[in-house]
Amino acid sequence: MSTLTTALLSALPLMAGWAVHVWWLRARLHTARRDPLTGLRTRDGFTRRATALLKDPRAVVVLADVDKFKQINDTHGHAAGDALLKATAERLAHHVGPSGVVGRLGGDEFAAVVIDDHGTAGDLLAVLHGVLARPVDDQDPDMHTTVSLGWVRAVDFPADDLSGLLRRADEAMYAAKQGRAGLRRAGLGRLFATVTGRRSGRTGARTDSPVVGVAA
C-alpha cells in the first residue's frame, strides 16, 4: 500500500466527521431561521429571502395582523390562540406560493412578499382576506376573527428598501384595521393619516402623513 493511499485512508474518518459537523451546522442554521410554532421563516430568514425577491419588479409586500388576538387568547386559551396562528400561517403560505415568501415577524404579525405575475394582487389578497377569516378546523366554531392586511407594490416606491416598504404596508394595514375595511393598499391617495405609524412609538414609524389607498 502506497504512502499516499495510507494517508488518504487515515484521513477518511476526519473528513467524514467534518462533513457531519457541516451538516449539523446547516441544520441548526435552518432551524434558527424557522419559527417553532408555525414553521414560517423568522424575521432574519424572511428578510434575506424578501430582499432578494424585491429585485423583481412584480414584487408586492404584504403585512398581516390578526384582529383581537388577545381577546382570543383570553377567551379560548393560549392553545386556541396557537392553533389560530398556525392556521393563519398555513393559509398565508398556501396563497403566497413557492415563488414568494412568508415570515412571522413576531406575535400575531406576519409579512409576505408576493410575486404578482398577472397584476391581480388586489384580487388575490381580497380572496385571502376571506380565507383568513374562516374558523379554524377542529376548534370551537365561535373562535374566529379577521386578519387586517396592508400591501404595497415595490415599484410604486422605488427608493424604498424592504424596511421602508414594510413600514408603508404597516401603515396601510393600520388604516384597514381602524376603518374595519380588512384590506388597504399603500400608494393610491390619502385616506388615513396615522402620523406615528401603527403603534405609538413604534420603531421606524414615519412622522409624515402616509399615502394610503383602497385595495384596487
Short description:
The protein has 216 residues and is of the alpha+beta class.
Pick out its properties.
216 residues; alpha+beta; 6-stranded mixed beta sheet; 6 helices; 6 strands; 45% helix; globular
Written overview of the protein:
The model is unreliable at 18-31 and 190-216 (pLDDT under 50). Strands 2-3-1-4-5-6 form a 6-stranded mixed beta sheet, sandwiched between helices. The protein has 216 residues and is α+β, with helices and mostly antiparallel strands. The chain has helices at residues 3-32, 43-53, 69-76, 78-96, 121-132, 162-179, and strands at 59-66, 101-106, 109-115, 147-153, 183-186, 212-213. The longest helix has 30 residues, at 3-32.
Strand neighbour order, sheet with most strands: 2-3-1-4-5-6
Globular, elongated, flat, extended or rod-shaped: what is the shape? globular
- Counting DSSP E segments of at least 2 residues, the number of strands comes to 6
Structural class: alpha+beta
What Rg is obtained from the alpha carbons, in whole angstroms? 22 Å
Helix content: 40-55%
First and last CA, distance: 76 Å
pLDDT < 50 runs, ≥5 residues: 18-31, 190-216
Give the averaged pLDDT, no decimals: 81
Order of helices and strands: HHEHHEEHEHEE
Largest sheet features: 6 strands, mixed
How big a fraction of the residues is strand? 15-25%
Per-chain topology:
Elements: H1 3-32, H2 43-53, E1 59-66, H3 69-76, H4 78-96, E2 101-106, E3 109-115, H5 121-132, E4 147-153, H6 162-179, E5 183-186, E6 212-213
Parallel strand pairs: 4-5
Antiparallel strand pairs: 1-3, 1-4, 2-3, 5-6
Helix pairs in contact: 3-4, 4-5
